[in-house]
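Researcher: Let's do a round of design. I'm pasting the structure tokens now; please hold your answer until I've finished.
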């Protein structure tokens, strides 16, 4: 009886065939051998299939991790590009046509910011003051005609002190920041 193209059965099958022949041989022996061979082949296929499934899951996990890492890096790069584009756009804008100075308050304490429009058109400015000492901030909407000025100080609810910041924003112009220093 031949179980493979080389003319020999594997040792485990060969031993089993010998035991079957001692118990009586015949049709029963062939049926046992066929059952054993089918069982062995099925076991090998199942084992190989389990290994394949494990390798496939591991591969899929690695691909998913690589994709997640690549997406995170891509998102970070896109964010940096967007920030760079915003900075370039801000640099391409003209300066806000204002002069800013700080003077001691006539009434109350601290300093008063004087913002003068030296441009030819009315400015609608979003002004934000931030306190370096308390981290508080306050915002105002200033409408300043050409050649005129506006004040922000104690009377407007803010007394500037050393280290405070004043930011002026008007669409179409580069934002300006001023730090108070005596």
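Researcher: That's everything. Go ahead.
Model: Designed sequence:
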């Amino acid at each position: 009886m031949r179980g493979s193209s080389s003319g020999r059965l594997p040792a485990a099958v060969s031993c089993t065939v010998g035991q079957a022949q001692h118990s009586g041989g015949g049709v029963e022996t062939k049926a046992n051998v066929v059952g054993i061979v089918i069982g062995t082949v099925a076991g090998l296929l199942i084992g190989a299939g389990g290994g394949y499934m494990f390798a496939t899951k591991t591969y899929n996990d690695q691909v998913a991790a690589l994709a997640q890492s690549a997406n995170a890096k891509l998102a970070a790069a896109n964010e940096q590009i967007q920030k760079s584009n915003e900075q370039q756009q801000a640099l391409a804008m003209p300066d806000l046509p204002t002069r800013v100075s700080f003077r001691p308050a006539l009434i109350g304490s601290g300093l008063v910011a004087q913002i003068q429009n030296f441009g030819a058109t009315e400015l609608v400015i979003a002004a934000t003051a931030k306190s370096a000492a308390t981290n508080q901030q306050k915002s105002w909407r200033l409408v300043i005609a050409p050649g005129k000025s506006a004040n922000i100080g104690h009377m407007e609810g803010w007394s500037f002190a050393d280290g405070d910041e004043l930011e002026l924003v008007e669409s179409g112009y580069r934002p300006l920041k001023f730090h108070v220093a005596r």
